[in-house]
Amino acid sequence: MLYDAESGDLTLVASGDTMITRKLSVFTEDRFTALVDLFRSADVGFTNLEMLMHEFEHSPGQAGGTFTGSDPSNLQELVWAGINLVSCANNHGYDYGEGGVLTNLKHLRASGLTHAGTGRNLSEARAPGYLDTANGRVAIISAASTFAEAGRALDQRPDILGRPGLNPLRFETTYTVDRPAFDALSRISNELGLEARRAAERRFRPRGAVPEDTDSEIHFLEQRFTLGEEFGVETAPHAQDMEGNLKWVREAKRMADWVVVSFHCHESGKTRDEPPEFLTTFARACIDAGAHAFIGHGPHVTRGIEIYEGRPIFYSLGNFIFQNDTVRWQPSYNYDLVKLDSEATPADFYDARSEKGSRGFPADSVYWESVVARCEWSEGALKEVRLLPIDLGFGRPRSQRGRPVFAGAELSRKVLERVTRLSKPFGTAIRTEDGVGLVRV
Predict the structure, then answer these.
(1) CA nearest 120: which of 143, 96, 104, 141?
(2) Are 415 and 389 in contact (CB under 8 A)?
(3) What CATH number was assigned to the domain covering residues 4-157+244-329+364-440?
């Protein structure tokens, strides 16, 4: 064997959402340093960077909830902790507009962290980032289904620049309703003149831009409804975005030894704990196109795990670092939402938003209990997935909570029982040994 990469051996430690605002390197608890050692010992340490690195030099763009911002030096805290691969395509990528996108990329390049998911145009946002390790070249592709429309990267043209933003995977939703509901929607549309407005749109938009209604399908308030025997919801990936992403997965397969796809998705199936249909479709298609692992995040809670064609799909790894209520500044827009005036401080805003910790993220333990996944490949085949529960400090002051440590025995059982239950519908069996979940392939 000439090169180590020929062995087909690799270890990947993957985590979920990282919203970092504070240092990591000053802490020395045993359960924290052991977690850091886990990342440092792996070939690849991954997290979703759901935080913009800037010094608040840009005006706010579009966000939901927290407008993110962190000292750019905190990227080196991630490097210190063994992270070397990050995704950037998420709903906070456009919190501070185009300027925030580009400044974040500037600091990422300076940090040396391999990254993907945002760019100066759509090609850059979709293209893989590449990490060279002793055991081979690793590609990462990062996409999101949850984002501000203005933050979606656009292609360049011969006559105009592209738009900075993230790599999108849009999706299409079809609602099936029974005959009484279908007739009621048709009547509402006719009585309110919505159909007349749609007819006007057809005259001024290209053919196909406004779908035609039929006897079994109606478009109501920009949603598609079809006639059926019972109620139902179906989602499917946007065809153009699907192929655009798979093209780059196939590219990465030819350019690297290992391919990782990261995906940010707040949408759900019938419950918050279930992935939506379009996500399972896209994840499996990425594996078919050559990805070795598909890592989901976004809902801030853990979801199930699927082993598809011998390769892991994590539908959500939950939170990893969750310091979203110690972001230094928030724009006036957020203060207005909770009816605070210009004299209010950030702590006033965070207290008002959560009603002093009684609602939202601070009030629900599920957001502060998660896992990191250690994946081991040997001779090119996935050998084992180890799920290691982490504790992010539920119920503690905001100055303390949000930094992960390995969970104790009782919390580990709770976390693994949840992931085991949610993985069962995908045919994935998880065995627990000494507080660690094991998936053998």
Answers:
(1) 104
(2) yes
(3) 3.60.21.10
| β-strand partners of 384 | 376, 440
Q: What is the pLDDT of residue 190?
A: 87
Q: What is the pLDDT of residues 180-236, one digit of tens each?
A: 999 899 888 888 887 655 554 544 455 555 556 678 898 888 889 999 998 999 999
| DSSP per-residue codes, 21-82 | -S-STT---HHHHHHHHHHHTSSEEEEEE-S-BS-S-S-----SSPPP-B-TTHHHHHHHTT
Kindly list the domain boundaries of the chain, sorted by start residue: 4-157+244-329+364-440, 179-227
Lowest mean pLDDT among 153-157, 201-205, 263-267, 290-294: 201-205
pTM over 0.70: yes
Rounded CA-CA distance 6/199 in Å is: 61
The letter for the amino acid at 73 is S
Q: Is the dihedral of CA 77, 81, 84, 88 positive or negative?
A: negative
Burial tier of 270 (Cβ tally within 10 Å: 0-12, 13-18, 19+): exposed
Residues making up the chain, counted from first to last: 441
CA separation, residue 241 to residues 93, 123, 244, 245, 256 (Å) = 18, 12, 5, 6, 22
